[in-house]
């Protein structure tokens, strides 16, 4: 687990590099008014969800996020962005191959020696955020830092927050819980989905994620004293109090950037996994990239 631990801790540095890279990459990144689709697999899909909501909220153009395997090839876009840490994921490369010569494509990757460099029309390379651990952490958040900066966001406060979340204590009692639910709204729904994925990958924990207002519509029934309910962003009025009355551990840090709070969840996943004897650098049944036979 040494790689995952080091990579999580390095995120303040990699975010700064991503923020700096945004200006140099401006010509390749989506322009105001373009109709954009963002595709990825696993973690990259969830970052795509967050970015799509942020871009639309900023008024910069209609933006859709798809798991690469579900991309609707008959739908018209001005630009398709492919998020792929490895640059080798079969489904992502398939989308780029099918779109070659018909629509502008952009690859955002960590490895400049992989097929995405040839298949995408343009590429932005975050090689400083590449990882040796199978469980993805810093590439995902660094890519989102790049994209948020390009949208015009000032991430000064997010940087200050992540400096804290890489080292502050985990929520008291969280490592002893059995069930974890992550809730978001708007762009943080993607972060909640990613938080749950990290817990499953690194610690084999029972984890779920929902839009916060949907939590009352059924999922709340699983919550009891053995649960953690973690809000990424501001909880809907009264919901945190309702969860506390059930007896669950509620985690919410007001005014903290949710992307920085995701880093603390990454740390929780690693710690619980380590206590179970698991290695997030080589998790069960997973590999760094899914490459399917042709």
N-to-C span? 32 Å
Ranges where pLDDT stays below 50 over 5 or more residues in a row are none
Number of strands: 9
Number of helices: 10
Task: Summarize the SSE layout with pairings.
Blueprint lengths: L1 H8 L1 H14 L11 E5 L2 H15 L5 E5 L11 E6 L5 H10 L4 E6 L6 H4 L2 E4 L12 H13 L5 H10 L13 E6 L3 H16 L2 E6 L15 E6 L6 H8 L2 E3 L6 H18 L19
Helix pairs in contact: 2-6, 2-7, 3-6, 3-8, 7-10, 8-10
Please, could you describe this protein's structure?
Its EC number is 3.5.-.-. It is an enzyme of class 3 (hydrolase). GO terms for molecular function: hydrolase activity. This is SIS domain-containing protein. Keywords: Hydrolase, Repeat. The radius of gyration is 18 Å and the shape is globular. α3 runs antiparallel to α8. α4 links the parallel β3 and β4. The model has no long low-confidence stretch (mean pLDDT 95). The relative contact order is 0.16. The chain has 294 residues and is of the alpha/beta class. The chain is 39% helix and 16% strand. It folds into 2 domains: 152 residues, Rossmann fold; 116 residues, 3-Layer(aba) Sandwich (Rossmann fold). It is built from 10 helices and 9 strands. The protein has a 5-stranded parallel beta sheet, with helices on both faces.
